[in-house]
Amino acid sequence: MESVTSAVGFTAVLCDDCQGLPALDALRETVRRTPHGVLVRAPCQLGKLWCSARTKASGASGTVVLVQPCDVERRPTGPVIPVGPIRTRTDLAALTGWMTATPLTADSLPARLRTRVPSARARNN
C-alpha cells in the first residue's frame, strides 16, 4: 500500500442521518475543485446507536464526514478518517480546507473535529 503522502484525492462520505449544519453544498464545491475528490451521501456508516450516543454525550448534534485519502486511480492510501461533529461554519471551513491539503491525516485536523470511533467490537456489545 502506498503511503499517505502519495494521496492526491479522497473519498468523502457525508452522513445523511446527521442533523446539523448543512454541509452538502460546501463539500460539493470542494470536490469540484479537487481533481481526484469524490463525494458520497449515505446513511450512517457507524450505526445509529453510535450517532445517538455521540449526540447525547456532547449535548449537540453535528454532521460527521468520513474521509479516505486515495491516489489518482482511486486506491486508498490511508485509513478512513472520521471528521466531526461539524457544528459551525468555522468547522465546515476547517474541514473543506483540510480536505484540499496534503497529506490528509487526522493529526492535521483541528482537535475539535477529530472524532473517536469505537471499534466494531465495542459497537456490537
Question: What topology does this entry show?
Answer:
Layout: E1 9-15, H1 24-33, E2 37-42, H2 48-58, E3 63-70, E4 81-86, H3 89-99, H4 120-124
Parallel strand pairs: 1-2
Antiparallel strand pairs: 1-3, 3-4
In short:
By secondary structure, the chain is of the alpha+beta class. The chain is 30% helix and 22% strand.
Radius of gyration: 14 Å
The shape, in one word, is globular
Helical coverage, percent range: 25-40%
Give the low-confidence spans.
Answer: 1-5, 121-125
What is the makeup of the main sheet? Answer: 4 strands, mixed
3D structure, described in words:
The protein has four helices and four strands. By secondary structure, the chain is of the alpha+beta class. Strands 2-1-3-4 form a four-stranded mixed β-sheet, with helices on one face. Strand 1 (9-15), helix 1 and strand 2 (37-42) form a beta-alpha-beta unit. The longest helix is centred in the middle third of the chain and has 11 residues, at 48-58. The chain is globular and about 35 Å long.
